[in-house]
Amino acid sequence: MSRTPQSALTLVDWRTQVADLYAAVRASDDPAEGHRIWVEGRSALFASHPQSPIAHVPELRESGVEYWPYDPALRFRLPIEAAEPDERDVDGGDDGSVTLQRIGKVVLPEPVGGSLDVWWLHQYGGGIFVPMRDGTAGAGSYGAGRYLLDTIKGAWLGGDDTSLVLDLNFAYHPSCRYDDRWRCPLAPLGNTIETRVEAGERL
């Protein structure tokens, strides 16, 4: 898909609005209120923005995507622990090949359990990327998994130099779930957990 000046500018606007939305979430002292802001903001973008991944799915633009109710037990601040180095290239569609470099992992407390690899997206500027494929995949959420963090796209809930905020209520489907024009890095084996995470965006 070739990029026109108009599509380039609307994509920049989309990413700016997403980053602003996450900034508003981080500014909220109440995580549940932050989640409400996030859901409402995403719903507005999905319904009206020209870069919406559901732009060609009129029934979804009218009804909106669905979310599980907010569960405060699924919000964590987790240290990034050591993991074996790994590097892989994945198809990024119009963005070309995307290189993922594993920089560590986070261990999820019970009742979730398991661990998720933390990746560095080795592109211009770089960014942290944490996908997740859980027990709802294919039976409640997209079969290839969801995203928790993608800082290149502005999806960041906070952290410091050794830890990050991981709130599973903010899990969302990659754009390729709705439109095959998009190419999205999917969850590797180290980002798969068995527990059903009934939180975040759902089918």
How would you describe this structure to a colleague?
This protein is of the alpha+beta class and 203 residues long. It has one domain. The protein is built from three helices and nine strands; from the N terminus they run αααβββββββββ. It has a five-stranded antiparallel β-sheet with strand order 3-4-5-6-7, with no helix packed on it. It has a two-stranded antiparallel sheet with strand order 1-9. A two-stranded antiparallel ribbon has the order 2-8. A hairpin with a 5-residue loop joins strand 3 and strand 4 (97-107). Helix 1 (5-27) runs antiparallel to helix 2. The longest helix is centred in the N-terminal third of the chain and has 23 residues, at 5-27. The chain is globular. The two termini are 27 Å apart.
Summarize the structure.
The chain is of the alpha+beta class and 203 residues long.
Topology:
Blueprint: H1 5-27, H2 31-48, H3 58-63, E1 66-67, E2 75-79, E3 87-91, E4 97-107, E5 115-121, E6 128-132, E7 146-150, E8 163-167, E9 201-202
Q: What attributes does this structure have?
A:
203 residues; alpha+beta; two-stranded antiparallel ribbon; 3 helices; 9 strands
Q: Give the distance, in angstroms, between the N- and C-terminal Cα atoms.
A: 27 Å
Structural class: alpha+beta
Query: Biggest β-sheet: count, sense, barrel?
Result: 5 strands, antiparallel
Mean pLDDT: 92
Output the strand order for the largest sheet: 3-4-5-6-7
Fraction in beta strands: 15-25%
Molecular shape = globular
Unreliable residue stretches: none
Instruction: Give the SSE string.
Output: HHHEEEEEEEEE
Percentage of helical residues? 10-25%
Number of distinct helices: 3
The structural domain count equals 1
Radius of gyration: 16 Å
Beta strand count: 9
